[in-house]
Write a structure and sequence with these properties.
The strands form two sheets. Strands 5, 6, 7, 8, 9, 10, 11, 12, 13 and 14 form a ten-stranded mixed sheet that branches. This protein has a four-stranded antiparallel sheet with strand order 1-4-2-3. It is α+β, with helices and mostly antiparallel strands. The protein is globular, with a radius of gyration of 22 Å. Helix 1 crosses helix 2. The protein folds into two domains: 72 residues, RNA-binding S4 domain (Structural Genomics Hypothetical 15.5 Kd Protein In mrcA-pckA Intergenic Region, Chain A), CATH 3.10.290; 205 residues, Pseudouridine synthase, CATH 3.30.2350.10. The model has no long low-confidence stretch (mean pLDDT 95). It starts with 6 loop residues before the first strand and ends with a helix. A hairpin with a 6-residue loop joins strand 13 and strand 14.
């Protein structure tokens, strides 16, 4: 099958599709998609009919219905079978997460790299919000997100009121969010405020160099702390690219190098805000993650002493 990563297919059912199963129609209209994989995509929740997510592969299709399929990483990672057992097998391969704080209003989690924060158009299964909802019971509200490959601290609300209050604080930039990132190359400045729009919206990051690492014959790396004023999608990754020093391991915006880490070298290390009900100031910290620690230590050991 052809590479379907991050693909979106939209089409309208034709008269000859009348009465056919959804998986049949999908496989016939998406180049390179087998009927078996079409059933998996439907089971994952990546297929919509007339705007509604449909998970029944045998759903009969009517002419004129609009079918939208989101096919990408979720399908690539999934067991190529359908049903509860297949999805349970997928969940068994997910990296474990750690709850660092919870009360009746919210829950703070240290998210590992490789775990999706929330439902996406590709799938509403196997994400952190879904796993938390089943583990804790009740509704879980997504307040903000971390990218799939980014690790670190993220907060979810457990009540509608807490969700409104926390979301309002984020919009007002009244959240303390600090990240650690290893950048490609040796950054010339020690501190810098980066103001560069993201997707046409104001975006501000405050960057501070923590450590420069320069193994002989290599381009070097700079461990940098980013404190966010705004929190646009991929803001740190785009701001680092704007400065000419992309985040190491960034397959979307960066470039390969001899220093590449095992995954994106970006970690949400601090999260702080005022509790939405009690008014108490809360903050948590998460150190540089274990899966990147050996890689960073190897860079340190290969950097000549000054």
């Amino acid at each position: 099958m052809t590479d379907l990563s991050h693909q979106r297919y939209r089409f309208v059912a034709r008269p000859e599709d009348a009465g056919q199963r959804l998986d049949q129609v999908l496989a016939a209209n998406v180049p390179g998609l087998s009927r078996r994989k079409a059933r998996v995509a439907i089971d994952l929740g990546g297929v919509f009919v007339d705007g509604a997510r449909v998970k029944v592969a045998g759903r009969a299709i009517r002419p004129g219905q609009t079918i939208l399929a989101h096919l990408g990483g979720a399908l690539d990672r999934a067991t190529k079978e359908v049903g509860a057992a297949a999805r349970a097998k997928d969940e068994a391969t997910l990296p474990p997460f750690r709850v660092v704080y919870k009360d009746d209003d919210l829950v703070v989690v240290d998210k590992p790299s490789g775990l999706v924060t929330a439902p996406t158009p590709e799938s509403d299964r196997g994400n952190l919000a879904d796993l938390l909802g089943r583990a804790l019971g009740g509704t879980i509200y997504v307040v903000h997100r971390l990218d799939l490959d980014t690790s670190g601290l993220v907060v979810f609300a457990r009540t509608e009121a807490a969700n409104r209050a926390l979301s309002d604080r984020i919009r007002a930039h009244d959240f303390d969010r600090v990240y650690l990132a290893a950048l490609l190359g040796l950054v010339a400045w020690d501190e810098r405020t980066i103001e560069e729009p993201v997707a046409g919206k104001r975006a501000v990051s405050h960057a501070t160099v923590l450590e420069r690492l320069s193994p002989p014959g290599m381009p070097g790396a700079t461990l940098t702390r980013f404190r966010l004023t705004t929190g646009r999608t991929h803001q740190i990754r785009l701001h680092a690219l704007h400065e000419g020093h992309p985040v190491l391991g960034d397959r979307k915006y960066g470039k390969t190098s001899p220093l590449d880490p095992p995954r994106l070298a970006l970690h949400a290390t601090r999260l702080g805000f005022v509790h939405p009900r009690t008014g108490e100031s809360l903050a948590w910290e998460s150190p540089w993650p274990d899966d990147l620690a050996p890689w960073l230590e190897a860079l340190r050991k290969s950097t000549p002493a000054r």
